[in-house]
Amino acid sequence: MNREVIIADGTIKASEHALDYGIAMNIAGGTHHAYTNRGEAFCLLNDQAIGARYLLQKRLIKKVLIVDLDVHQGNGTAEIFKNDTDVFTFSMHGASNYPFKKEQSDLDIALANGTEDENYLKILKETLPNLIETQKPDFIYYLCGVDILASDKLGKLGCTINGCKERDRFVLQTCKDLSIPVMCSMGGGYSPEIKIIVDAHANTFRLAQDIFF
Ligand SMILES: [Zn+2]
Q1: Where exactly are the structural domains of the chain?
Q2: How far does residue 100's CA lie from ligand 1's centre (Å)?
Q3: Each residue of 107-153: pLDDT tens digit?
Q4: Architecture of domain 2-212 in this structure
């Protein structure tokens, strides 16, 4: 429990930093299976939901877009914000991945098993700019799980590490171009070779450095 409190606190602090610097990241977090009143899977407290509520209640922002690209649906996040018009929840995930009973996000895109880079990126690039245009968020939470990789033990998609990097580049560059602050939480990654997980997560940080600083 203590660990989850520290992680959520990190996401709150990162949310404030993102307002100051355009971007901030939590090296943990992305605990999107935690609901309003219960934990699920590896998640006890929903760090990005807590961060979003914190910024909204302090009136530091008006409208949040949650971009959840972890391979698992952000079911807890969808439930927490289901009646909240200040937070738009977008989840793009593997159709046959956990959770098997999915919640309804404001926008869900469920991808077929084995979806590869080309299709994945095409769908993302068609979707995200339109969402930003229609929802007009002044803050974005990005859940950048790397369990979309073909090598992932739990994920059922077929993306490469370069595809995953291009995904991150597109999201971060879009936020930067539109001057929308973005806070990133790590999310999942379960490739058997630890090096691949570390590389994929490190790419997100490298891109943030390249794009923002
Ligand atoms: Zn995941």
Answers
A1: 2-212
A2: 13
A3: 999 999 999 999 999 999 999 999 999 999 999 999 999 999 999 99
A4: 3-Layer(aba) Sandwich (3.40)
